[in-house]
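S.,

Sequence below, as promised.
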Amino acid sequence: MRKPPKPKVRIKAIFSDVDGVWTDGGMYFDQVGQAMKRFDAKDGFIVEYMRRAGVQIIWVTGDDSGVTRARARKLGIDCVCPGVEGKRECVCDLLGDLSYRPDEVIFVGDDLSDLPGMAEAGIAACPADAVREVLEAADWITERNGGHGAIREICDQVLQWNREFDEEGRG
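The prediction came back faster than expected:
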C-alpha cells in the first residue's frame, strides 16, 4: 500500500478503468458466449455518495460491452467512455470539456493501457493487484484488490479529504 499526500485542492472527479479496478478482472461466459463480470456491491454503493458530494465518477475503458454499459446505467455513472484505445487523449479531452484541472482529478488503473491516462491526473492510483509497471508508476496503491473494494477505499478517502477542505473553508 502507498498513500499519496493530501491533495492541495478539492478532488472533483475520479477517472477510472473498469476491468481490474471495478471488477476483479475475471470474465465468465455462459454456454452461448454471453460475458458476465463480477462487480463489488460496496464499490457501487459509494457512487451515489460521491455524486452528492460533487465528485464525478468517469469510466475510461477499453471495454465496449453491454455488461459494462449496463453496470454504469445501474450505478448512474453518466460519463462512460467505452472502447478507448488512447486513454491519454481521452483524459485530456475530458479535462478540457469538463473544465477540470489535472490536480483536481484522480485516475485509477490496473494495467499497461492505463498508464497514459494515469500520467495526466494529479494523483495516479491503482489497486493492490495491478501489474508491476502500474504499481511502480502509481502515487497511490490501495490496500484492496480490484473488484474487492479498491474503488471504495479511494472514494472514502476522497470524501474525507473533501470534507476537510470544506471545514477549512477551502472547498
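The mean pLDDT is 94.

Coffee later?
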